[in-house]
Amino acid sequence: MLEQNKTAPSPEDGLTALAEKVHADLALIAHPRMSWLTPQEAPDGSNALDVLIVGAGQSGLATAFGLKRASVDNVLVLDRTERGLEGPWLTFARMRTLRSPKDYTGPDLDIPSLTYQSWHTAKFGKEAWQALDLIRREDWADYLLWFRDVVDIPVRNGAEVISIKSAGHLIEVHVKTDDEQVSAMFARKVVLATGQDGMGCWWMPSDIAALPKELRAHAADDIDFERLEGKTVAVVGAGASAFDNAATALESGAREVLLLCRRDAPQVIQPYRWLTFRGFLDHVGDLDDPWRWRFMQHILSLREGFPQQTYDRCARHSNFRLITGAPCRAHVDADQRVGLDTPKGTFGADLVIAATGVDMDFSRRSELAEFADNIATWRDCYEPPEPEEDDRLSRYPYLNGDFGLVEKVTGRTPWIENIHVFSIASTMSFGPSGSSINAMTTCVPKLVSSITKGLFRADVEQHWASLKEYDVPQAILKSGEP
Questions:
Q1: Residue of 98, 27, 111, 1 lying closest to 62 (CA atoms)
Q2: Local confidence pLDDT in tens for the 482 residues of the chain
């Protein structure tokens, strides 16, 4: 009798087996297991959280996982969006793939069975992994949801943080849910893993912002690209997201897409590839202010480089025009369209998309309003030499060695040292950190260690008392023996 052909395992079977492997691996390396934090009573009589994480994107999830491995279990992650829409991957990210190499590790924190490679192989097979060039953003979003579930991260979706203030030795956080109900939560530590605009706002030049809303958008907006069929679109900026938005407009049937680059040539070197080595990722945050500023000012003064596929996605269209050396000023022209004046001439468009990044403006965030005016910035703490001056970067928050906020005026809001920033806003102080997949393996453990250090120090008297009371014998001596 011929042996029947064995069918390949289904994706569900592969992921089930991988989840079992993850749980087994984590059990093997769970030492030390002992709980070490004593519940703290909140003003409302409940137990306060040890750590409240705002943002359930990749940075928030990785931080929660790191805390879990450090036996900090009284943690909750909040996100204002619905499940699956955390982070940019299925919203305003318009690239087809991630830009980082497929073998970069991230939220797995060096657990092999938790890597994206393990997930992709379990779901699609080894041959699919070997054939893969770059990771599809939709697959990365699916992986993050699987990661969240398999390591059991507690996440509450549809919960928006609207204010943060002091509550004695705790932090009081007001949260609004989708049904418009507002409630207070209390925590010893808060982590702001709130993405690129989490300490400010998406920025566009004032002349573009002054245009009627129907004539302009930011690259991070929810843009209805289908309505651009047959229209002329201008994209201002020449970073990776600018090309992504231009490509999406072209693929949606735009009649013409202009990409206006103020430089003489787009930035094609990706400095984040250079800095992805242990020495830099581990220790740039340990340097003195002049060196930290020098490195990050140079890196962040460059636009984000993009892979060949990103450019080709636009260049294959004959109705795409890349116009370099073209800083622009926008206005409404006689036809009620956008007019863009540049050294290369004036161009008309039905919509202008500003791919112009973010600005650090703490006052624009309602959750920071209670103390925004007392958050120290780099401008408050360091004056760079004239060739390195950068007004935009000087507005980034100047963070403590534990990612905690620093007071501008000491003593006014001392409690903000227990608010830790893990997003693009931490970049000037720590290099790529909460904003980059390539930095998670080094930066998340540093953040977690800093948080647990603060929690331990705050409870040191309790730990001392516990030690003195400890009386569990390791052996029982026979009667008559000394």
A1: 111
A2: 444 445 566 888 899 999 999 999 999 999 999 999 999 999 999 999 999 999 999 999 999 999 999 999 999 999 999 999 999 999 999 999 998 899 999 999 999 999 999 999 999 999 999 999 999 999 999 999 999 999 999 999 999 999 999 999 999 999 999 999 999 999 999 999 999 999 999 999 999 999 999 999 999 999 999 999 999 999 999 999 999 999 999 999 999 999 999 999 888 888 888 888 999 999 999 999 999 999 999 998 887 778 899 999 999 999 999 999 999 999 999 999 999 999 999 999 999 999 999 999 999 999 999 999 999 999 999 999 999 999 999 999 999 999 999 999 999 999 999 999 999 999 999 998 877 898 899 999 999 999 999 999 999 999 999 999 999 999 988 876 65
CA distances (Å), origin 256, targets 259, 314, 338, 339:
10, 11, 14, 15
Domain 204-267+303-356 has CATH 3.50.50.60: yes
114: tokens are 């938790």
| E strand intervals along 282-418 | 320-323, 329-332, 338-342, 345-349, 351-354, 358-360
The C-alpha atoms of residue 34 and residue 18 are separated, in whole angstroms, by: 27
Sequence ranges of the domains in the chain:
11-199+359-463, 204-267+303-356
The topology under which CATH files domain 11-199+359-463 is: FAD/NAD(P)-binding domain (3.50.50)
Tokens of 81: 């969006």
Collapse the DSSP code of 337 into the 3-class scheme (helix H, G, I; strand E, B; otherwise coil) and give the result: coil
State the Cα–Cα distance between residues 426 and 428, nearest whole angstrom. Answer: 6
CA 16, CA 315: separation in Å to the nearest integer? Answer: 42
Do residues 405 and 429 lie in contact, with contact meaning Cβ atoms separated by under 8 Å? no
Q: Reduce the DSSP state of residue 262 to 3 states and report it.
A: coil
* Residue with tokens 């940075």, as numbered in its chain: 59
Q: Are 11-199+359-463 and 204-267+303-356 equal in CATH topology?
A: yes
The pTM of the full predicted model, rounded to 2 decimals, is 0.94
